[in-house]
Amino acid sequence: MDTGTVLRNLLTLAWLLPLAGFVAEIYALQLRWSHRLSKAPAQLAVACIGAGFLCSLSALLYWGSQTGWAGFSPADHGHHASEEHHGDEHADEEMPPADALHPSAPEAGEHAAEGESHGHTPAHAPKFYAGTFYKLATFGPLEITLDWYIDSLTLVMFTMVTFIATCIHLFAMGYMKDELTEEYEDHEVHLPGGHHFTRPGRFHRFFAFLSLFCFAMLGLVLAGNIFQVFIFWELVGVCSFLLIGFYVERHSASTAANKAFIMNRVGDFGFLIGLMILITSLGTFRFFDVTEDHVEKTGLFSLVRGNDGKLDVSDDKSVVQSVVYLRDSQGHRLVDGTTPRSISYLLLIAAGLGVFAGSIGKSAQFPLQTWLPDAMEGPTPVSALVHSATMVAAGVYLAGRFYPMFPPEVLLGIAYIGCITLFVAATIAVVATDIKKVLAYSTISQLGYMMLGIGVGGWAAGLFHLVTHAFFKSLMFLCSGSVIAGCHHVQDMRQMGGLRHKMPLTAYTMLVGVIAIAGLAIPGVGNALFGQALAFSGFHSKDAIVASALAFTELNSNQLHRLLFVVPLVTAGITAFYMFRLWFMTFAGQPRDEHVYEHAHENPAIMTLPLVVLSLLAAGCALGGEQGWLYSLLSYSETVPAVERLASERVASIVLPSHHDVHDVHGMAGGLALFAAFAGTATAYLLYCRKVVDPDDIRRQAGGVYDFLVDKWRFDTLYDVAFVRPCLVIGSWCQGFDQKVLDVVLHASAAITVVVSKWERTFDEGMIDGLVNLVGNSTTNFGRSLRVVQTGRLRQYVMWIAVGVVVLFAALFTALPK
Amino acid sequence: MEPVGLNAYLFVGAVLFVCGIVCMAIKRNGIGVLMGVELVLNGANLNFVAFARYTPLGLDGQVIALFVIVLAAAEAAVALAIALNFYNNHLSIDVDRGSELQG
Amino acid sequence: MLSPEYLLTLIVFLPALWSIPLLWFDGKASDAIRYFGLLGTALTFGLTLQLLGQYDLTPAPEQLHEGMQFYFAKEWIPNWNVNFSLGVDGISLPLVLLTGLVSLLAMIASWSIEKHLKGYVILFLILETGMMGVFLSLDFLLFYIFWEVMLLPMYFLIGVWGGPRREYAAIKFFLYTLAGGVLMLIAMLMLYFGSGNSFDLLYLARVGQGLEKSFLLSKEFQITAFLLLFIGFAIKLPSFPFHTWLPDAHVEAPTPISMILAGVLLKMGGYGIIRIAFPICPLGAQYCAYGMVALGVFSIIYGAFAALAQTDFKRLVAYSSVSHMGYVLLGLAVWKVGEKAGDPNLHYWRMGVNAAMFQMIAHGISSTGMFFMVGILYDRVHHRDLNKFGGIAGLMPHYTGLAAGIFFAGLGLPGLCGFIGEIFSVLSCWSFDKTLAIIAASGVILTAGYILWTMQRVYFGPVYKGPHGEALVPLLGREKFVAYVLLAFAIALGVFPNALFQYMDPSIKTLVDNLDASVHPQLIETATTLVQ
Predict the structure, then answer these.
(1) pLDDT tens per residue, range C312-334
(2) Which residues of A fall within a CB distance of 8 Å from B95?
(3) How far is CA C77 from CA A51, A732, C9, C181, C193, in A?
(4) Which of A294, A409, A587, A731 could form a disulfide with C308 if both were Cys (CB 3.0 to 4.6 A apart)?
């Protein structure tokens, strides 16, 4: 078996195991292999996802061994490429043609048989392996398939998702143990009688849904075409729906679940438009090229980017007329008869924005961010797995995966969306008091950072942050879950305080996460060892993003674009502030609510163990920063547009930085970010630990702003007024139209028919029958009037005969001619 | 003196006929009416015979006249029987009393 | 191996023949009648499976008669040139199977019928004959007769076994369909006399496509005939503004009849368009394409909005049918004529027609399931007011799980059947018209909105708010069976749609190519001269 097949088999196994687990777990009670008080379904789920993790890890290691560990080493091709052309603005044009737009691929790839595709000749380590599972449908040249596409990004994502999922499954076994009962009392649901709602526990169902989610998420990562991404995109959405609404009895939970799904669908509406454009203009959904029967079916990336990673844009000055010529994997323009195949530049932008709209929904970006905080209605392990580490990051993953399809204008849009999101969410997080809501807003904000990173050309930086964030955010969510479980389902930070004495393990693992997300570092210490500051993972990844942003602003003269650097910098400070605020309010200081404090307790090992493991990774996964193994692995999959300087003058005048540009400003950006982080941390310390100024005073002073932030910038109100209510109104109009117009027309025509029939009856009875009767009656009357002649007198008759004869004769003689 | 011509016969026949009609019209006695009928028939008979004599019809007229005489006899028998019955019913043969056929 | 004559004829007439012995059954022997009826529908379904088994995916040319397999024709009324001709191709085969399946499941769902059971089963079986006949007949008059045959049992099934306003609903359904039938009759006579006295659908199609040199149908003629046919079929589909019979009929009809109505009867509209209106009047179809797509898109949005406003559970599902059948109309009509025959646009139309056909089958499964699920609740608590439910998830968890699966299929969740039809028809629309495509795509939001909101109101929440809460007992065995069969089909078609496409696509490709060629006559002529 070649490498691709091995990888495919391993990852497919990791992908399908949770599905099998789902089926077994959901029928745990029906099939009688488990019972309501048994942990067996959870153990099965852990076994499935754990085995999935082992498969993914071995796939990663196998891939590493097959590629000579090239992907793990910091000696990064990207840097080399840039450094070689140091100072030469047009250097990138001289890049040797590389296959599938990967910068350091030495020669064009060959395509294996059976529809499998490798980014490369077998002699060298291929950039990616891809192939087809089976066909969903074929309509002439249009093929819709289920594919697989494996590169280092896929492998990292698989390993990360399965690992975090395993940790969270373990944690959930402890967290959800309340459900192991026949009589679960739900304290959030108040029945009219004043008592609480009780129901049988649903332990097995929770793990079934988690397994289903893992299946969908892994399918999304493995997908080899954009349509397949969409399929699993929706499936993770529905799993999220099921998990948010896990407590179906709570109205708030089911409402939040609906909101999450519907807002995601709003994004998917854009995604769908993107798909329509792609299938219509490009005729395929596949990322990669396949050769079947010696006919190359060019994939999306090659069509748009050819073999050199450039857009082949026509020379038209007008934006409307300019087109991008489609090319095959050798870089030759494709022709349809004699005219070259092309896609309008604007349409390409529209397709990019459309697909990105899906990301906006899934990753809770502005303006669709409001569903994520509400999604915290789900159990905390769900928040940790679905709504911080994996599913919401899928939007970023998609933006990264689909990166070669985005022209610079789309990337600019992505950057701005990310920029707005990260600021808006961070400001709300400052005033939130629910421990999970703070984390939710911080998730949105960090996702904004990732989007910004990708948008300003820091492809690897954005995805780097995705992975580090997954570790530290899932850690923090689990910590908050641990707090919630320890405090008997109290989530309001105003009732907490001083909990580090009661639950030290939770407190200090949380502190690791907080430091990681805040981006604190000790400059100078680690330099000797790693060539980088000694810091937890978040520092490195955020640093990379801020550096990309700075490089971007340096290259672009437009002053507005400075925001793309200033805002994240400021927000880095805000982030540090609200995260430390959270930690201080929860774990430091004096207990605010004695009752809560009294009953608080540390959780059993099955819950704390995952915390420790995750905290180690949150601290150390990015060790070495951009020289470390994680960043190297990710950037191994970088494509040409992510590595080289990219410019566009079409719609907006933009220059996206190359690796080299970023490298130049790295030090300065890192310093500024670190300063901001320390400033935020210090403020939080002064306000919430030292109590230099009472935060309540500030709240009173800035009441308007405070209310505005507490109301989440009033987005929910806006959407309610602008969309939800109008929809319901239009719905009732439609209903009314049916009943008041269509049915009335129908009834009116029925009534008219009846009236016409009545007239007809009158006409029949009056006119037609009347005429017939008239004839009969008049005959009778005539006969009756002749009665008087019939006197019965014989003599009279004789006289009449005589007179008649005379008259006859008289008439005869007068009438007849002589 | 001219020989007696057709017109004379016709004239007599017409007189007889008119007398018969008048007799039928004015007589209230049933027997009188029957007499009037006889007069009418005989007036007609006279015409038949006269036409038979003065036109080239041969014996047709006489044959019909004989036929009419026979018919008149039968009719008289029937009519007299009716008159008798009428009398039995009404104790009179005044035809004006027999107006049961009035419409 | 039955010979095609017997197999097809038996599929059509077995149910009706099966109902004859029922006449001698004792009306009180309810179970005997039920089992006998069930056996009849099961045998019919078995025969359709036999048909599937005998159907050849890669037929040799001699097996085909103008694309039809198992074709045969027997003289019926020679004076008028009417034949008894049946045949099956990739377009009708899935629908025949669907009819067999839905009838079988509906018969199982009829177990709760108590009133005049004998009459019910007899009418039910006659109805099945009508439906099978519509899908299999290849003679216009025969088609028309089956179309009307199906109407009467339906009238009685709604009017006798229905809910409180059954008479109103039945007469509304009857009159609507009859009006459509009359329009179809006019068109049929137009075509009969326009084609030199033929009712043969295949021959008429050749005439319409300009392949018979002796008779040519002018464009104006075709447009008129097409409009008549289209309105007739659009009533059945139903498309806005001819849809108002549907909510009433669905709401009043008993559950099994709702299942048949949604599962099979609505498909006759789409089938009629693709089997009769399109092939016979390609110029008319081409002329009306934009209007049809617009109507389809409007129906999608309109149905979804109207569904949002409903408080009656069944009415909501009925409006969802209006919305979902809009995708059928949309997919069928995305026919944009390229500058030359065989233009790339054609692939998207082919995709659209495939999607429309798939959507018909998928809707046949998901909508049948949804009505069945509503019926299960109605059987227990005897009301359908959405605001008086809640808490069903706690009381009937197994049922809720199955219902969620089926409702998600209706919502168009990937991996379930509804997704494929919806998404492909929307995707195919972009090359036809961008604005309409965007509007159609926005339907995904509304669909999610009304289905999730309904699920929240009915299944979620702590307590059941309506009357007869004590009657909410877990699913019975036969209910589970029906639900699982439907869910299994929903998943199977959603995961392996090609299993269905491989039957439909060859026939649809032929159809699409022929129709496109028929509107490019000048190009065909040049091509022929070149060949000569």
Answers:
(1) 999 999 999 999 999 999 999 99
(2) 793-795
(3) 71, 52, 17, 21, 16
(4) A731
